[in-house]
Amino acid sequence: MFGRMFLYKLKELSRVRWLIGWTFLFPLVLATAFYLGFGNLISDDPMNFSTIDVGYVNQNPEESTDTASTFSAVLDELGEETDDHTKVLNVTVYETVEEATAALNDETIEGYYVEESDDISVFLAKNDVTSTTLTQILKEYKNYEMTIEQVAQDHPEAIESAVDTISENLEFLTGHDFGSGVSAYMQYFFALLAMASLYASWISTTLLQGMCANLSEGGKRFECAPVSKVTSIMAGTLAGTVLQTFSNAVVVCYIEYVLGLTFGAPLWNVILITTLGSALGIAAGNFIGALFKSSTLLTAVPLVFAMVCSFLSGLMVGNIKQIIEYNCPIVNRLNPAAVFTDCLYVLSTYGRTQAYYNDIVIMCVTIVTLLLLSALLLRRRNYDSI
Question: Where in the chain is CATH 3.40.190?
Answer without folding.
Answer: 52-179
